[in-house]
Specification:
Elements (H helix, E strand, L loop, with lengths): L1 H16 L5 H19 L7 H20 L6 E4 L3 H11 L4 E7 H5 L4 H9 L3 E8 L5 H13 L4 E6 L1 H16 L8 E2 L9 E5 L11 E5 L6 E5 L7 E4 L1 H4 L4 H20 L5 H23 L4 H21 L3 H13 L3 H31 L11 H18 L14 H15 L8 H28 L1
Parallel strand pairs: 1-9, 2-3, 2-4, 4-6, 5-8, 6-9
Antiparallel strand pairs: 7-8
Helix pairs in contact: 2-3, 2-16, 3-16, 7-8, 10-11, 10-12, 10-14, 11-12, 13-14, 13-16, 14-15, 16-17
The protein binds nicotinamide-adenine-dinucleotide and fe (ii) ion.
The site of fe (ii) ion has 6 residues, from α10 and α14.
Amino acid sequence: MKKQNSIAKLVSNKLVSNKLVSSKLVSSKLVSSKLVSSKLVSTDGLQHAGYLAVAKTRAKVLKAFAYVIPIRRPMLFVGESSCDELCDMLINEGSTNVFIVTDAVLNKLGIPAKVTDYLDSKNIRYKVYDGITPDPTFKVVEEGLRISVDAKCDSIIAIGGGSVIDAAKMIAMSQGNNCKPQQLIGILKARKPSVPLYCVPTTAGTGSEATLGAVVSDDKTHQKALSIDPRMVPLAAAIDPVIMKGMPAHITADTGIDVLTHALEAWMSANASVETDYYAASAVKSVMQNLPVVYKDGGNLKAREAMGIAAHYGGIAFNKAGLGYVHAIAHQLGAYYSIPHGRANAIVLPYVLDVNRQASKKRLAELARKTGMVEDGQAGKSNAVIADHLIAQVRELIATLNIDPTVKGMKTTDFDSIAKAAAKEVSDTYAVPTYLSASEIKSILTKIQQASDEHADTDVKSDKVA
Ligand SMILES: NC(=O)c1ccc[n+]([C@@H]2O[C@H](COP(=O)([O-])OP(=O)(O)OC[C@H]3O[C@@H](n4cnc5c(N)ncnc54)[C@H](O)[C@@H]3O)[C@@H](O)[C@H]2O)c1
Ligand SMILES: [Fe+2]
């Protein structure tokens, strides 16, 4: 940790002293290129030189950003007593009045009790807010913020999946800055630190407990907005396999593929580094081994814990390397057709791997060799063969998990705006191995629609047989 910070400092000092990049310059460049790119994306040909130049410059600026601005890591507690350790840390830090953010499903299941019972035993006051909904909107965040401020809470514990953690990040940051959550949308919008935030992830998916971003959806359009600030990284996280053991198999599958997608997109990113590669490869290896196990046997605590750590590692990897087209398209499927985040990734992932295959075959082959995803007798084969085998194994895993590929209500008339929004997300935020034209993105959407229709036909036929 210390070493990482000092490396970041060294790099940042070097850049600043060379007057190459200052954080002000970075953000003004980002803002100005945002204006330019939104104009470019609104034209027909996404593949034209202007779009590519802006997107590639932005990717380089983001890389500099990741080096210049040190991103802290949360203190990590792992295992069955990790929630107690997390609460001890919060108490030692002087907190006396905790705001607990969760959702109604988890509250009904009694999951927050593991934390609240411990706080009771230590005579620490708390207030539970269970109003977070999947893909939280500003309204939900504003309600939580109001309750936390009214109750004068001095710290926040998020107990939930990515939706709860992201909402808690926005509540903590808005309370710390005495501002509306909408004012935090964008990069480095906060002036002050957030209220101390602690996380207990209940899914092994988003890795949000490790990241500097939070996603909030517009109440009407459901379009997702992103707030990015290193001060958003929680102070600590507890990865407790017992808390995850009751997660239903389909949520285990969806969120587990989210982990795999973070790791694969971070690995294929043009901004990947030795550091992000380590975390991305560890996450891929762990998901391939442990996700089929927890899908079949949710009570396997060893595999649950391994998936929790993999999710955290995935978060660390994409925090710096970024994501790619899988997330850019999946976010749109979520906004337009209400597909849960992890499932949307599972639906899109194989198609994006196929289109990245040419540009990423060397990197994918390297990943396969590193993670033991090479078949016996394949070691001497070409990168293309080994990369194809890795892609086939990803498809096989998704099939084993019986992830529903249905996207209800998908309309070809939506494809133009979906492609435009996905292209904009990529050029604004990611450093992808290969840039896609609008028609390439639309061709992926058509394949998704066909697979969805075929699945629906099979379902109808099997219903008739039954
Ligand atoms: N900030 C980031 O870095 C980041 C990264 C990726 C995704 N996200 C965001 O995270 C959200 C998705 O989070 P998610 O995939 O973890 O799902 P989620 O938090 O939306 O939860 C999905 C469902 O699973 C239930 N659930 C969660 N844990 C459970 C458990 N242990 N037992 C039983 N039920 C459980 C929840 O109640 C909910 O109904 C999206 O909004 C996405 O945009 C954020
Ligand atoms: Fe994700």
